[in-house]
Every structure is written in structure tokens, then in C-alpha cells.
Hints:
Structural class: alpha+beta
Radius of gyration: 17 Å
Strand content: 15-25%
Number of domains: 1
Largest sheet: 5 strands, mixed
Oligomer: single chain
Amino acid sequence: MIIQRRVGIIRSINQIPKGRITYTDLNKPSEPLYSKRYRISGKPDYIVKIKDYIVPVELKSGSYSKPYKNHILQLAAYCQIIEDVYNVFVPYGILVYDEESYRIPFNPSLRFELVNVIDKMRQHLLSDTELELNHHDPNRCYNCSMLKYCTKRLI
């Protein structure tokens, strides 16, 4: 009973839809999921089984008037990884911000864009060109996972 109540509170706070939570990386570290086809891996915050579908849920801090493109692509990568790992169709993923949640369709257009971005990233990694800084805001550096490796950091 106590565990169910705790899960209910977590669901409410994180705006997780009804369904069975089959994976989480938030309250306990989980193994990354890996797509052999695209050679990408990731750890969505939650995977929820809703009716006949498996749906990734990604939590982001802050409130935005619309989802950020990089967040949408991250969620799309999770959708693709889940399809490849579990051999299922993933119709959408859910982005949750502090004030709002968005159901992002994993449609042909987003699938195509994801594959193009993966290809561009690989091409760039194989080239000798140096990455350019894509912002001038030191605040973005504080939470960046690449901060200790970055030669262009602003802090």
C-alpha cells in the first residue's frame, strides 16, 4: 500500500500517464538501451506501457511555451531505440516540462529527421573540423554533460 501511494505521488508530480511503468532511470540507475541498427543508446526517464503501446517519457526542468527541438530529437531517439530493442511500434513519446507535457508523434517526418541528424553527427565526428559553439550563454554550460571535455566552455 505504501509503495503504491509513493508511485502515485511520483506519477502525479512527474505527470506520468496511466499505464504500467516498465523502465525508469530516475529513482534507480538502469542499463542503457541500445539500437544495433542505428548504433545509438539512451536511457529514457520512463517507459510506460499504455494499452497496446510502449511509450518513452522524458522529464525536463523548466517551463517552455513549446518543446525544444533538441528535446524532441532526444525523445525521437528513445522511440527508435525502444522500437529496435523491443521489436514494437512506438507511435509517440511524451515530453514533460514543469508546467506542461507534450505528446510528440513519432511520425515518418520525425523519423526521417532523426536519421539525418544521426548521419550528420557521424559525418562530423569522422571529419577533422572542430565543433563551433552554438550559444553565448554561460548558464547553458553549468548543466552540460560535456563541460569537463569542452574547450569552448564559457565558465
